[in-house]
Amino acid sequence: MLLEAGPVVKLVVLILIYSSVVSWAIIFYKGRVVYRAMRESERFLDFFWAKKRFDLISQGLRDFPHAPLSVLFREAYQELIKGQKRREGEDVAPAFDLGGSDNVARALRRATTSEIQRLEKYLPFLATTGSIAPFIGLFGTVWGIMDSFHGIGETGSASLAVVAPGISEALLATAIGLAAAIPAVVGYNHYLAKITNLSNQMDNFSQELLNIVERMGRR
Q1: For residue 69, with 0-12 CB atoms within 10 Å meaning exposed, 13-18 middle and 19 or more buried, which class applies?
Q2: What is the H or E stretch that residue 8 is in?
Q3: What pTM value is reported for the model?
Q4: Deepest in the core among 3, 82, 95, 136, taking most CB within 10 A?
Q5: Domain locations in the chain?
Q6: What is the mean pLDDT of residues 138-145?
Q7: DSSP string of 36-75?
């Protein structure tokens, strides 16, 4: 049917096939990235509460290269170290509020934003495909039906044998449009929900980390 379709319908179908292939590639890629981030974040949380000491936790960060929570801790710890060096240079009485919790909070916000952007990378393509693929397919269908009726007008025959092939070729575009859109929408909603859970986990961890820093500073 595709080989016998008109050039516009062929172009529409090729665009939809390309969008579908890219969408499936993104779905598999994001599955690997998101689920790996979830697993390593859970492992890092257990490691964090088991070690308790920041210096020991920092030494074990290499074991969690894909965990968003480990990135948050690394940024916060680096900010603490910078604050400590500033205090030592200014000969201030030692305290573990190294640089102040405000600096740590800003570092955590930056790291959270960066990690969310990394996790959401390529998701807009899934959302776009899910939104416009049915309309692109519908455009191909409408164009194919118009072409079929134009052919009917030229031949002067409206028999089923004349009408059916053109209509079936036109409907092919809508079918492929739906086949491209449905997995894209499902994949987008699924991974968006997972990333939202990771974002909430990062917010909770950031708050816990800030509380620990403030308690250490008061001591």
Answers
A1: buried
A2: helix 7-51
A3: 0.82
A4: 136
A5: 7-218
A6: 84
A7: HHHHHHHHHHHHHHHH--HHHHHHTGGG-TT-HHHHHHHH
